[in-house]
UniProtKB/TrEMBL annotation:
Composition bias type Basic and acidic residues, residue spans: 284-295
Family recorded in the similarity comment: Belongs to the LysR transcriptional regulatory family.
Protein's UniProt name: Transcriptional regulator, LysR family
PANTHER family per record: HCA OPERON TRANSCRIPTIONAL ACTIVATOR HCAR (PTHR30346:SF0), TRANSCRIPTIONAL DUAL REGULATOR HCAR-RELATED (PTHR30346)
Region (Disordered): 283-306
Organism: Lentzea xinjiangensis
Keyword Manganese: no
């Protein structure tokens, strides 16, 4: 079988997402007839039918659904390879660290200060994102390293170093009766009729069922809490963005959250090695680290998990 070209995958993804050849052609900036021919050639090459067509548009077959999922991942991988290659060709580029806005603020500040004190250390550019976006930014090559949180963030496939373990708090409206409590339980915060927990989108963009409002950004969430429309449970260090209209109450039985430094396998450059050493020195139980840039698994390297 001939190799499938990235151009063909890009064409197919456009059609699969639009489910209409005319709209897909307009999105790609090409005419519809060559797009239709390209999809037909792709189907012949693969030996399967990817789309069922009718006068109203198109519908994905089971094979088409598989290819859509795999094609998106393949195109993301190609884009990430291009970004990483370009950055690797610039020895003076900063190391890009992505982190959720407002999360682990004090730890991030200490990490940047420690890295700045490393002789010859590369500068660190901080890329702020919304909840759950760090994994995507690492995989698509927009960032070199991330501060992430176990068990909530997607750490699959990344190398990691654990930095800090902490408890969680409920952020509630200051005027709500819950704000007067010294402590709360998950059962208490999960069943408040007039203050349902906000719902974040899943990885596929859909929302879980529930009465709470749908949110996509922390600014939305902060305002909804201040208005008395929702509450949330977060790591205690994330209170850095807390408004005066918010009150933080410890949730005694919430699972502990571990802040980790994460990066893609194979991306352990000297600049990253320096940052990992700086991060390991900030861990809850630090240990002596070597003077030379270590590689994962080498004697004296910080403990790395996958």
């Amino acid at each position: 079988m001939d190799d499938v070209e990235t151009r063909e995958l890009r064409y197919f993804v456009a059609v699969a997402e639009e489910l209409h050849f005319g709209r897909a052609a307009a999105r790609l900036g090409i005419a519809q007839p060559p797009l239709s021919r390209a999809i037909h050639r792709l189907e012949r090459r693969l030996g399967v039918r990817l789309l069922d067509r009718d006068r109203r548009g198109a519908v994905l077959t089971a094979a088409g659904e598989v290819l859509l999922r795999e094609a998106r991942a393949a195109l993301d991988a190609v884009a990430a390879a291009v970004r990483r290659t370009r950055r690797a060709g610039n020895p003076d580029r900063p190391l890009v660290l992505v982190t959720k806005a407002g999360a682990s603020h004090e730890l991030l500040r200490r990490l940047l200060d420690a890295q700045a004190g490393e002789p010859g250390a590369a500068p660190v550019e901080v890329l702020l994102c919304e909840v759950g976006e760090q994994a995507h930014r690492l995989r698509d090559g927009q960032a070199d390293v991330a501060l992430m949180h176990r068990p909530y963030d997607d750490l699959a496939g990344f190398d990691t170093v654990d930095l800090h373990v902490e408890s969680q708090v409920a952020i509630v409206p200051a005027a709500h009766p819950l704000a007067a409590h010294d402590r709360l339980t998950l059962a208490e915060v999960s069943h408040v009729p007039d203050l349902p927990i906000a719902r974040w989108p899943r990885l596929d963009g859909t929302y879980p069922e529930g009465p709470g409002p749908e949110v996509r950004t922390q600014s939305q969430l902060a305002q909804l809490v201040a208005l008395g429309k929702t509450l949330l449970v977060i790591p205690a260090s994330s209170r850095a963005w807390q408004w005066p209209e918010h009150v933080a109450v410890p949730v005694v039985d919430a699972p502990e959250v571990t802040t980790v430094l994460a990066w893609p396998p194979g991306g352990y450059s000297p600049a990253l090695a320096s940052l990992v050493r700086s991060a390991a020195g900030l861990r809850d139980t630090p240990r002596p680290l070597p003077a030379e840039d270590p590689r994962p698994g080498s004697p004296g390297a910080p403990a790395v998990s996958r």
